[in-house]
TrEMBL record:
CDD domains: Sigma70_r4
Domain of life: Bacteria
Keyword tRNA-binding: no
InterPro entries reported for this sequence: RNA_pol_sigma-70_dom, RNA_pol_sigma70, RNA_pol_sigma70_r2, RNA_pol_sigma70_r3, RNA_pol_sigma70_r4, RNA_pol_sigma_FliA_WhiG, RNA_pol_sigma_r2, RNA_pol_sigma_r3/r4-like
Record's protein name: RNA polymerase, sigma 28 subunit, SigD/FliA/WhiG
Length: 261
């Protein structure tokens, strides 16, 4: 499988897509899959902290490759949609669905994660600043040690929850609808929604406190692990969890408010 996730030098242009859709040539299909398999590698690597304690990387790559193959079959090159965008949505969706099927997060952990998010959001609104561990623990009527334990346990749950939120909101607008329906009229709406959603996320990240912004950047863009982020910021891993949870809560509220509007 490692061979499949190495991006080759060959070029897949519009004529190659037309040839494949016209002939269904298996060799050309495999060439296309090989060329775009880097999308799977990128998706798996960018979500590694999310699944490292849940599933083997090889399993996620397999799921991603299957989704990529399906995307190749379903993609309509005549539509004004980039295959990379279309395939990325389907691959990430397949990975998230696979993690969902594992049923790995106990209900108690999910509840603790939600309660902690709510507490941080409420205290932030009240104090207009990042609440301390003591304040969050007092709000939840638990000890600081219990809070830090809960946050460590619920960290992966909050990451999955945020990925699910993004995926669920993108699913209804993904290019699959236009690629399969044959209607080009929907494309401007889809592109507009996708761009606006990205703008909402970018604007929210820009407004985050400096340390929260750093955590988001290092986790989602530089793919650093919790321990590595803690070392960079010179704080504990539990503090990184709190910063991440707080940032995700703000991003979630922004996305939900946008979708409702």
């Amino acid at each position: 499988m490692s061979r499949l996730i190495t991006k080759p030098e060959n070029i897949i242009d519009a004529s190659a897509w037309r040839d494949y859709k016209r002939t269904g040539d298996a060799a050309l299909r495999n060439q296309i899959i090989l060329h775009y398999s880097y999308i799977v590698k990128y998706a798996v690597m960018s979500m590694r902290n999310m699944f490292k304690s849940i599933a083997e990387q090889e399993d996620l790559i397999n799921e991603g490759i299957v989704a990529l193959m399906d995307a190749v079959e379903r993609f309509n090159p005549d539509k004004e949609v980039k295959f990379e965008t279309y395939a990325s949505i389907r691959v990430r969706g397949a990975i998230i669905d696979f993690i969902r099927r594992q049923d790995w997060v106990p209900r108690r952990v999910r509840k603790n994660a939600k309660d902690t998010e709510t507490a941080i959001a409420s205290l932030w609104a009240e104090y207009n600043r990042q609440p301390t561990d003591d304040e969050v623990a007092a709000y939840l009527n638990i000890t600081v040690d219990e809070l830090r334990t809960n946050m460590a346990q619920s960290y992966s749950a909050s990451v999955v929850s945020f990925e699910e939120l993004l995926q669920d909101n993108l699913t209804g607008f993904e290019p699959a609808a236009s690629a399969e329906s044959g209607s080009a009229d929907d494309l401007p709406e889809e592109a507009f929604f996708s761009k606006e959603l990205k703008d909402v996320i970018a604007q929210t990240i820009e407004k985050l406190p400096p340390k929260e912004k750093l955590v988001v950047a290092m986790y989602y863009y530089e793919n650093l692990k919790l321990k590595e982020i803690a070392q960079v910021l010179e704080v504990s891993e539990s503090r990184v969890c709190q910063l991440h949870t707080s940032a995700i809560a703000k991003l979630r509220r922004s996305i939900e408010a946008y979708v409702k509007d």
